[in-house]
């Protein structure tokens, strides 16, 4: 009603608006945008273009690439067992993250939302690992999984499992799960925080009303909390998948991709090819693959999963809904 | 359109992390180090050599007013990565460590390294023969040799005696026997850094050298093929050792000089031997619990001979370190290399027991018994083979390391190893 009453004022405006549009200071806009555009072009677009260009050559990285091979590097990529293995391992980590890490974070967020004593301290403790850099985390866990003095071994010995802890990172069959453990340790706090923030933005009236209607805690969670957490969960899955596809630091420091490539990721293979074997052309093809996988996943995910979420304030232009 | 421009750009940003590589090698930066600044990168990142070289740089600065030497001392792997990045960007440091061989050849081919033939010629006759071999590409010298050495078995005399192994083994069969005896005393026979693959490649390379002789390696380099039966036999012999499970628990994830790695396991007396270069005692000391190392308990013996092999037990495998000069380096950089190569300075290096010098006059300053035994073994050697991961092109060297690691983990057959390395050699 209020809105309708305001409308009569509108006709008086057009001349003002059109004048302001005419006087929109384009030079100023361009001037202020230029540094950002320049940096973006230089630091984001140029590397993509250069990598795309380099991926068409057999090149050891020295001097100017001359040996043009077209799409040969990509053809090789498609038949490369190591690349296929990287994809499998990435998929495994994505599955584990979505299946275990995120639900765990969600449960934790729900618990931390309860009025329990020392809640603040818990939140701090759970979020702390996220503050550490990936490299520090990896070094820390190298020590924990260390065969002689490692904490993992102390624990397994205490509970009567012998030297099991020492071999987690050294066994091709367990290294991915150990890696997942470390990744989870570092990132669960971040996702918990996202969920907690989203949970707290749900108006209490909804739960009060549900309680009045006789809904138990599970029904309230299932029909009120979970749907309203939807956008956050979808974003958290998105970040988790993209992070996994680009995983490098942690793996590099923790295992170097080993033992015998059993924990190698796409980015680790790229590094090995580029900086260890000097196959820069091939490494560029791998980096293009990582880029395209991220891009297509991102586009499809936004198109089909995030569609409704993104129709909110963030991406709509003007009054379009 | 559903996908707004904004979200597309956001995604491009997300993908860019994976493209960090693309940014390298793009620019031809060119060195800005004119005037009196010399950027010196070396790998002696621990004492005694870290301080010894820092001290030498300071003395050179004092004698040459206006010259500043900026030292960057990095651990091997970090060094290789950083150097590769800089060289691919066209900006090599003024003086940098080089192991010579195939890697140096690629750097030379790219025009990143100065030809030192004329300069080093001035002090060449002061060096032990063959010191510059690894740094010679197509007849021209591209680095000044600084230290030399070889790989051999470092062993704990006490643990050997306790296992009843009275003399170090001289045959492969003898080594396997010693391993069996050591296992009987509940000692880890061999410490190995499986995470870093280069220590593992020593076994395969040495076995190939003992079985096929030096000619086998030369032929492989010429033919770009490792298909010769002797390479497969080397893998078979190594598999015999692996079958005895001689390495420490979790060796596949162990580093070399880390807190719980190969050198620490050895230096803390938890393993009976390790196959490593002349720097092993220093690193053992540095990574052991009390920074004491094994002291008198430490001994050295050459890699054993293999029955029926064409190679001799006196053929040495190893390498040394030299300093290459970047393309844009000031002339004072070469002056500084000449300064380091002076006998008095080489003697300082020798006395630290950190390096085995290549300057003839400084050999008398080698007093450390361990280093002396390496020097003596090297002096009486009948042939020399450079580390395979340096001698060949990087792609081949890495494949040797990777494939041998697979063999050590029981995931590849001796035939697989030879075939994979041959494939890499053909691809280049």
TrEMBL record, chain A:
UniProt topology in membrane: Multi-pass membrane protein
Top-level taxon of the source organism: Bacteria
Membrane-crossing residue ranges in chain numbering: 29-54, 91-112, 124-145, 175-197, 237-260, 280-301
SUPFAM superfamilies assigned: MetI-like (SSF161098)
Subcellular location per the Swiss-Prot or TrEMBL entry: Cell membrane
GO cellular component, one term: plasma membrane
UniProt keyword Protein biosynthesis, yes or no: no
UniProt GO BP: transmembrane transport
Ranges where the record places region Disordered: 1-20
InterPro entries: ABC_transporter_permease (IPR051393), MetI-like (IPR000515), MetI-like_sf (IPR035906)
Pfam families xref list: BPD_transp_1
Coiled coil: none
Family matches, as CDD domains: TM_PBP2
Domain ABC transmembrane type-1 residue range list: 87-301
Keywords per UniProt: Cell membrane, Membrane, Transmembrane, Transmembrane helix, Transport
Protein family membership: Belongs to the binding-protein-dependent transport system permease family.
Protein name: Raffinose/stachyose/melibiose transport system permease protein
UniProt organism field: Catenuloplanes niger
């Amino acid at each position: 009603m209020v809105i309708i009453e305001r409308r009569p004022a509108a006709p008086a405006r057009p001349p003002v608006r059109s004048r302001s549009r005419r006087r929109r200071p384009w030079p100023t806009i361009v001037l202020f945008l230029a540094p950002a555009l320049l940096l973006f072009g230089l630091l984001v677009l140029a590397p993509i273009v250069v990598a795309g260009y380099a991926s068409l050559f057999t090149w050891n990285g020295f001097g100017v690439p001359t040996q043009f091979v077209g799409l040969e590097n990509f053809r090789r990529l498609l038949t490369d067992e190591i690349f296929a293995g990287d994809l499998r391992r990435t998929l495994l980590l994505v599955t584990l993250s979505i299946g275990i890490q995120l639900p765990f974070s969600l449960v934790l967020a729900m618990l931390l939302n309860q009025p329990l004593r020392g809640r603040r301290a818990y939140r701090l403790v759970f979020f702390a690992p996220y503050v550490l850099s990936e490299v520090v985390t990896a070094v820390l866990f190298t020590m924990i999984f260390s065969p002689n003095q490692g904490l993992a071994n102390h624990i397994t010995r205490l509970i009567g499992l012998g030297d099991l802890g020492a071999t987690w990172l050294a066994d091709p069959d367990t290294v991915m799960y150990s890696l997942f453990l470390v990744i989870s340790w570092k990132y669960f706090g971040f996702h918990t925080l996202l969920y907690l923030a989203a949970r707290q933005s749900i108006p209490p009236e909804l739960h009060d009303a549900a309680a009045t209607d006789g809904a138990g805690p599970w029904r309230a969670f299932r029909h009120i909390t979970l749907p309203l957490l939807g956008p956050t969960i979808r974003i958290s899955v998105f970040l988790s998948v993209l992070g996994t596809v680009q995983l490098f630091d942690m793996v590099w420091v923790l295992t170097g991709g080993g033992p015998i490539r059993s924990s190698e990721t796409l980015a680790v293979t790229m590094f090995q090819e580029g900086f260890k074997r000097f196959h820069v052309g091939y490494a560029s093809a791998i980096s293009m693959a990582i880029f395209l996988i991220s891009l297509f996943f991102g586009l499809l995910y936004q198109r089909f999963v995030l569609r409704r979420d993104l129709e909110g304030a963030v991406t709509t232009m003007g009054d379009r809904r | 359109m559903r996908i707004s421009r904004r979200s597309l750009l956001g995604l491009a940003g997300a993908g860019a992390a994976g493209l960090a590589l693309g940014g390298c090698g793009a620019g031809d930066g060119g060195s800005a180090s004119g005037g009196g600044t010399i950027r010196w990168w070396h790998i002696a990142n621990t004492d005694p050599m870290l301080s010894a070289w820092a001290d030498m740089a300071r003395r050179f600065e004092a004698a040459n007013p206006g010259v500043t030497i900026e030292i960057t001392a990095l651990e091997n792997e970090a060094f290789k990565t950083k150097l590769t990045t800089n060289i691919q960007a066209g900006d090599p440091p003024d003086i940098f460590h080089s192991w010579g061989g195939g890697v140096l050849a690629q750097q030379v081919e790219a025009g990143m390294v100065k030809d030192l033939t004329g300069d080093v010629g001035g002090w060449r006759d002061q060096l032990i023969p063959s010191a510059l071999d690894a740094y010679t590409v197509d007849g021209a010298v591209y680095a000044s040799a600084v230290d030399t050495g070889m790989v051999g078995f470092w062993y704990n005399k006490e643990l050997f005696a306790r296992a009843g192994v009275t003399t170090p083994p001289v045959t492969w069969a003898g080594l396997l026997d010693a391993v069996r005896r050591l296992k009987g005393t509940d000692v880890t026979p061999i410490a190995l850094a499986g995470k870093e693959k280069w220590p593992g490649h020593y076994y395969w390379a040495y076995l190939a050298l003992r079985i096929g002789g030096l000619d086998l390696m030369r032929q492989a380099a010429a033919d770009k093929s490792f298909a010769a039966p002797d390479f497969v036999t080397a893998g078979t012999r190594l598999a015999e050792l692996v079958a005895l499970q001689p390495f420490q628990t979790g060796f596949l994830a162990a580093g070399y000089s880390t807190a719980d790695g190969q050198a620490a396991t050895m230096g803390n007396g938890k393993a009976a031997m390790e196959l490593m270069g002349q720097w092993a005692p220093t690193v053992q000391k540095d990574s052991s619990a009390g920074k004491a190392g094994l002291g008198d308990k430490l001994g050295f013996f050459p890699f054993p001979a293999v029955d029926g092999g064409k190679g001799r037990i006196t053929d040495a495998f190893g390498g040394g370190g030299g300093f290459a000069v970047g393309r844009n380096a000031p002339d004072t950089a070469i002056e500084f290399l000449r300064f380091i190569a002076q006998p008095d300075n080489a003697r300082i290096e020798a006395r630290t027991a950190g390096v085995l010098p290549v300057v003839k006059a400084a050999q008398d300053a080698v007093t450390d018994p361990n280093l002396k035994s390496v020097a003596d073994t090297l002096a009486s050697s009948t042939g020399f083979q450079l580390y395979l991961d340096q001698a060949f092109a990087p792609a081949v060297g890495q494949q040797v390391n990777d494939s041998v690691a697979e063999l050590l983990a029981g995931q590849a057959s001796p035939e697989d190893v030879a075939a994979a390395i041959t494939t890499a050699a053909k691809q280049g």
